[in-house]
Amino acid sequence: GDPGPEGDPGLTECDVMNYIRETCGCCDCEKRCGALDIVFVIDSSESVGLTNFTLEKNFVINTINRLGSFAKDPKSETGTRVGVVQYSHSGTFQAIRLNDPKIDSLTSFKEAVKRLEWIAGGTWTPSALKYAYDNLIRDSRRANANVTVVVITDGRFDPRDDDTLLTYLCNAPNVDVSAIGIGDMFEQIEENESLKSIACQKDDRVMGMRRFADLVAEEFIDKIETVLCPEPLIVCPDLPCKSEPAVASCVQRPVEVIFMLDGSERMGQENYNRAKEFIENVARRLTLANGPTDERNARLALLQYGSASEQTVGFPLTHDLTVISDSLGNMTYMDSFSALGSAIIYAVNNLVIKENRRLARRNAEVSFVFITDGITSDNQLDEGVSAMKRAEGVPTVIALGGDTDEEVLRKVSLGDSSAIFRGDGFAVLNKPAFFERFIRWIC
Question: I need a labelling partner for 213 at 20 to 30 A (CA). Which of 49, 105, 180, 269 fits?
């Protein structure tokens, strides 16, 4: 017979590379900041609270995400190495060391940060500065590396501590120090002077803010990024995608994941079904706790909400995959209105705490995952966010589609734009890149 019609042209090399970049996100241009040794000194005292301590850890992770090439070998002369000191009362220092051979990738560093547990004691800031230099910097700094210390504290230090140690890092050669004070008290002259002492009297290295949530705000991360890496080199390699090795999920610490599923008419039955499938996939992907008293691993809960008086507990906090799967199968779509504030209050009072009894495990991170476009009644929204913060809740938002209420999303995410997961539609929930990024974030 006659030759058939000419077919469509095949994919070009650019098409293939674009597909790879969109799928795995690992062929993008890379920021290189030279050899950096960075040490975060973070306040883990009782006054900070678990929620704010988690925000401190998120700040550390979000900042390092910006700095490009991570040293794969702690002895390497190039790349970024990061250490963390968390401190509370005398002698209660915990550290991630700059030269830890187990910290050989950004993933392993994030895992180490997330394993840090709130100490909840006093505030011995001067001693923490001495500890940071003596144990993390002095003997392990690289000769050609820029050394920067970022100190975060929420208040005055214990008077029993040695205040002459506030300037301890200023006596160290070639160490740049930034001090971040959080809370109204730093508006007082004497307290601001203590921050200046920490920062070696450099006014541009003293930063104050009223709330811990401001730590993870995009504009503040931009500011810190400029301090840590003022003149980055942008390199765009033409390399095949590589992925970091998979890590176990939520096995090193207790995590309570509470899904808040919008059951309003805007959701639609098809998207509702996709959201339920996503929740079950998360349950199957995470390492679930062995029981209600397991001090590691994850438990899940689900609340579907509609109007101010419509809240349905799909399942309370549980480690039982069968319960999760069966409950999801039995849940029906509300097809109602949306009152997110009332739903948060209900979740706190019925899933986290009930009749003055805490249902979440002691020392567990309580992670609220909101599946919503943010278009909701503003009634009791502020009260709901406050209730979540009092319950030491850490928010994550999944906002899909182009029609969203950005003000509500910012409020619910406590101003942390990196905690908002976006996509064109609910089909993205089944995309491996989106799913794995969500799992890494939660854990």
Answer: 105
pLDDT digits (tens, 9 = 90+) for 168-185: 999 998 999 999 999 866
CA end-to-end distance (rounded Å), the chain: 61
Q: Are strands 297-305 and 254-262 parallel, antiparallel or unpaired?
A: parallel
Task: Give the chain's domain count.
Answer: 2
* Same domain assignment for residues 297 and 193: no
Q: What stretches of 319-381 adopt beta strand conformation (E)? A: 353-354, 357-358, 365-371
Q: Is 273 helix (H, G, I), strand (E, B) or coil?
A: helix
- State the Cα–Cα distance between residues 129 and 167, nearest whole angstrom: 8
Q: 114: domain CATH number?
A: 3.40.50.410
If asked whether residues 357 and 224 sit together in one domain, one would say no
86 lies in the same domain as 203: yes
Residue 419 has, within 13 A of its CA and on its CB side, a CA count of 27
- Give the domain extent around 207: 28-235
| Strands (DSSP E) found in 253-292 | 254-262
Across the beta sheet with 297-305, the strand order is 311-318, 297-305, 254-262, 365-371, 393-400, 420-423
- Do 104 and 143 fall within a single domain? yes
